[in-house]
């Protein structure tokens, strides 16, 4: 993950220095140095909340700021709790409860911080952890899986189709999306459902979601530029969306197959050799 991030930062820095359109960082945000420091310290969300949005290819890194901060402290908290499951669950529930509060209260009217804050994004991650934890201990019956799946899909469809100001103001709009996603995952995981072959490309897109997420703005900028040069024809909008998804998925797959996965295999093989060397050097107890 970090290796791909470093490669992306190198490429984006080169494009900024070369003054390529759509990739130049505005001086009001502190320029390239501030953006690099924020990306490496996982504070892109803080930088944008204070000084405004970075170019889209940099802006996507806001979510890594939230995720990596959670993942850094998560094992430390787990170790500190010493395997006490109830306290572990309570800790995650605290994050779930603080998410809407962070969006509704702690944002202080800052629209960027409303969506990009640390606590405002960690409730969804905590819900995912709770879902995984629950599925190891609870077996859902067929009817329960059906209810969970339909409820999750309904919640997601509702969130995409309808905007209720009260939910936005209370910060619960994103909570509903996270809960709907967790319910759908729970139903799918315990049903043993396997996607048909026709959904293979969509499954592949999900498996390469990280690579696709980090690189998709290259496709968006390129195709949107063509869309503008063509005079922004309304009939081409559906084609634009479909083509962006297709090409972004292909770029993500190429990035994974040619860079991420080979590098992961190399790192894993070296780590296994190191572990083997350490184990062979340890005295054998009799």
Give an overview in words.
- There is one protein chain.
- The chain folds into 3 domains: 1-62, no CATH class; 83-193; 197-264, no CATH class.
- Helix content is 77%, strand content 0%.
- It is built from 14 helices and no strands.
- The protein has helices spanning 2-17, 31-40, 44-51, 56-59, 62-81, 85-104, 111-116, 118-135, 142-161, 165-169, 172-191, 200-207, 209-229, 237-281.
- It is globular and about 55 Å long.
- It starts with a helix and ends in a 5-residue tail after the last helix.
- The relative contact order is 0.08.
Topology (elements, then pairings):
Layout: H1 2-17, H2 31-40, H3 44-51, H4 56-59, H5 62-81, H6 85-104, H7 111-116, H8 118-135, H9 142-161, H10 165-169, H11 172-191, H12 200-207, H13 209-229, H14 237-281
Helix pairs in contact: 2-3, 3-5, 5-8, 6-8, 6-11, 8-11, 9-11, 13-14
Q: How far do the termini sit from each other?
A: 41 Å
Describe the oligomeric state of these chains in a short phrase. single chain
Shape: globular
Taking the sheet with the most strands, its summary is: none
In helices, the fraction of residues equals over 70%
The secondary structure category is mainly alpha
Poorly predicted parts = none
- Count of helix runs: 14
| Tally of distinct domains | 3
The rounded Rg comes to 22 Å
Order of helices and strands: HHHHHHHHHHHHHH
Averaged pLDDT, please?
A: 90
Per DSSP E runs of 2 or more residues, the count of β-strands stands at 0
Q: Approximately what portion of the residues adopt beta-strand conformation?
A: under 5%
């Amino acid at each position: 993950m970090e290796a791909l991030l470093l490669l992306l930062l190198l490429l984006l820095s080169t494009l900024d220095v070369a003054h390529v359109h759509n990739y130049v960082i505005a001086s009001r945000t502190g320029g390239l140095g501030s953006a690099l420091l924020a990306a490496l310290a996982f504070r892109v969300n803080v930088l944008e909340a204070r000084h405004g949005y970075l170019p889209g290819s940099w802006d996507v890194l806001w979510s890594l700021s939230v995720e990596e901060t959670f993942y850094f402290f998560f094992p430390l908290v787990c170790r500190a709790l010493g395997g006490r499951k109830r306290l572990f669950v309570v800790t995650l529930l605290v994050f779930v409860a603080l998410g809407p509060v962070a969006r509704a209260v702690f944002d202080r009217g800052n629209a960027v911080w409303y969506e990009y804050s640390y606590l405002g994004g960690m409730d969804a991650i905590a819900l995912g952890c709770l879902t995984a934890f629950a599925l190891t201990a609870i077996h859902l019956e067929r009817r329960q899986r059906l209810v969970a799946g339909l409820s999750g899909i309904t919640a997601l469809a509702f969130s995409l189709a309808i905007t209720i100001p009260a939910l936005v103001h209370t910060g619960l709009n994103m909570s509903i999306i996270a809960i709907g996603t967790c319910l759908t995952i729970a139903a799918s995981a315990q049903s043993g459902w396997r996607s048909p072959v026709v959904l293979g490309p969509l499954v592949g897109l999900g498996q390469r979601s990280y690579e696709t997420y980090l690189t998709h703005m290259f496709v968006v900028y390129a195709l949107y530029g063509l869309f503008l040069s063509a005079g922004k024809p309304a009939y081409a909008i559906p084609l634009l969306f479909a083509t962006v998804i297709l090409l972004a998925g292909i770029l993500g797959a190429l990035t994974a197959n040619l860079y991420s996965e080979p590098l992961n295999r190399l790192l894993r093989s070296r780590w296994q050799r190191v572990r083997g060397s350490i184990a062979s050097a340890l005295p054998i107890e009799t």
